[in-house]
Write a structure and sequence with these properties.
Blueprint: H1 2-8, H2 13-32, H3 34-72, H4 91-103, H5 106-119, H6 136-150, H7 152-171, H8 183-186, H9 193-230, H10 236-256, H11 258-283, H12 286-302, H13 304-308, H14 317-344, H15 351-383, H16 388-394, H17 399-406, H18 413-433, H19 436-441, H20 455-475, H21 483-513
Helix pairs in contact: 2-3, 2-9, 2-20, 3-7, 3-14, 3-15, 3-21, 4-11, 4-15, 4-18, 5-6, 5-15, 5-17, 6-7, 6-12, 6-15, 7-14, 7-15, 9-10, 9-14, 9-17, 9-18, 9-20, 9-21, 10-11, 10-18, 10-20, 11-18, 12-15, 14-21, 16-17
């Protein structure tokens, strides 16, 4: 028994050493010279998106088209786990887990800030398009662009990898890992030797960079909220304290497991989302929300292909590189491991049901969220009730969210500020719960990804990721206040980009060329 346990916990040194060494190197560089880390990260950010922006755009559109074909074809009838398989979770619980397990803090933080940044042309987003800042056209564009960045294309990335992982695991009886999704292209040999180690190492680095950037953004949001709302000084001890607390929370949640941890957290989180949407829709400028959302949808659909095939040259670097391409890099960084999570909870569902829950419903939710939050903020700005654009210009890219909430009618800001801080915290903990255990388990031989890894590995990775996140949150500022964070996230996407492309081709082969199996 002792021998079996020792064998089970044997470390995959070929994966652990290079991944940990590179991550630790980033932490050491950040501690010794945070400016060097931020500078190097930003240079890589610019080079990767300028050089490969065209590829990000093309593969993103291909993924959307492939998932839509799967949704409406006979492929959608396949049951994951076989015809006799029964779902483990009720439908709306399943949806809450997929929505909150993938969205993290992004939709909460940018639902207000991103439309305002476009509307006010804060970083030059409108310059190359010839749109006048603060105009009605700018308001329509702001909402339309958010619809593009936060709905069908990014969720298609998660949905495709989720369905592929689930099918290979439940129907093809492969292991629950990234390498197994490439078996349709390369056969069983892909799962052994040097190539397998490289693939899992790169996937692991993408997970680490993605999780680090998410944690950094969470710390920045919470410190910004505490500083602006309660006058708490933004100091290094505050960054460190929040970072340690968040790491402890998502590590503890991962120990509890999906059924007891994530299922309960995601349900709570989802109800906070729904409640905030209803409250803002009722209290906000309801007619403006409805009209500008409809007009924004027209702008989005009219420009869909032009935005989708813009390698930077049409929209310019401030808009296309720093927003859309950056978004694609972040979603791709998370896609392989999020696909593992989505695959795990999809047993007993048809592929069509999975695509509805992982693509259609989250995309519709994104449209509703940006319609309500974004247009309420734009309404405040246009009516002169609050100059949120100036707030961003004078502080950082995320400050407007808390000024917006503090100025809710009927003095509701007193209640909504702590509620929103809680939602930000629980959103990240929920998403990190879905990914953190994979970082440690990918370092162990002979166990499927998603199973429990030794506690010391979780602590080791948590401390390393936390160190980088705290450094970037405290010192990684810049034009947008979060430049270092954006650079780390883009690096994660580029690391896994080519693996993700192979997964897309593997999905095309296994669902449309090979013989599908129940």
């Amino acid at each position: 028994m002792l021998y079996e346990r020792k064998k089970k916990n044997e470390i995959r040194w070929a994966v652990f050493v290079p991944a940990f060494a590179l991550t630790l190197l980033a932490a050491v560089v950040g501690i010794v010279s945070n400016k060097t880390l931020t500078t190097l990260s930003n240079r890589f950010f610019t080079w990767s998106l300028d050089s490969f922006g065209w590829l990000y755009q093309i593969i993103s559109l291909v993924v959307l088209l492939v998932t839509l074909v799967m949704l409406f074809s006979k492929v959608g009838d396949i049951t994951l786990g076989g015809k006799e398989a029964k779902p483990k979770y009720p439908f709306w619980t399943w949806f809450a887990m997929t929505l909150t397990g993938g969205v993290a803090t992004g939709i909460v933080s940018w639902g207000v800030n991103e439309p305002l940044i476009y509307f006010g042309n804060i970083y030059g987003e409108l310059k190359q398009l010839g749109i006048e800042p603060f105009s009605a056209e700018a308001a329509r564009f702001a909402i339309g662009r958010c619809f593009y960045n936060w709905t069908f294309i990014p969720y298609a990335m998660y949905a495709l990898t989720g369905v592929l992982v689930a099918y290979m695991y439940f129907n093809k009886k492969q292991q629950l890992n990234v390498t197994s999704t490439l078996v349709p292209l390369f056969g069983e040999k892909i799962k052994t030797g040097f190539v397998s180690d490289v693939i899992d190492t790169l996937s692991m680095l993408a997970i680490i960079l993605g999780l680090t950037s998410g944690l950094t953004m969470c710390i920045v949001l919470l410190t910004t909220g505490l500083t602006s709302s309660y006058g708490i000084p933004s100091t290094l001890p505050l960054f460190i304290g929040l970072g340690v607390a968040i790491i402890a929370m998502f590590t503890l949640s991962s120990y509890v497991g999906l059924d007891k941890g994530l299922q309960k957290l995601s349900g709570i989180n989802a109800w906070f989302y729904y409640g905030l949407l209803i409250l803002l829709f009722v209290l906000g400028p309801t007619l403006f929300i409805l009209r500008n959302s409809t007009a924004g949808m027209a702008v989005w659909l009219q420009n869909f292909w032009q935005w989708g095939l813009d390698p930077i040259d049409i929209g310019g670097a401030p808009l296309t590189r720093s927003w859309t391409l950056f978004d694609w890099a972040v979603w791709i960084a998370y896609a392989p491991v999020t696909g593992i999570f989505l695959g795990q909870i999809s047993y007993g569902r048809t592929i069509r049901q999975c695509l509805i829950v992982n693509l259609i419903l989250p995309a519709v939710f994104g449209i509703i969220w940006f319609s309500v939050w974004g247009n309420t903020a734009l309404g405040m700005q246009i009516s002169g009730q609050l100059d949120l654009v100036a707030t961003i210009k004078n502080s950082n890219a995320v400050m407007a969210l808390f000024e917006f909430i503090k100025n809710m009618p009927f003095g509701l800001g007193i209640i909504l500020v702590p509620v929103n801080l809680f939602v930000i915290l629980i959103s990240f903990v929920t998403a990190a719960d879905a990914t953190s255990n994979n970082v440690a388990s990918m370092c162990i031989k002979n166990i499927p990804i998603g199973s429990e890894a030794p506690g010391y590995l979780k602590v080791l990775w948590g401390a390393t990721i936390g160190a980088i996140a705290i450094i970037m949150a405290a010192f990684g500022g810049g034009v947008q206040g979060v430049d270092g964070v954006k650079a780390l996230a883009a690096a994660g996407g580029f690391v896994v980009l080519f693996i993700f492309i192979l997964q897309v081709f593997a999905a095309i082969k296994v669902f449309f060329i090979d013989k599908t199996e129940e």
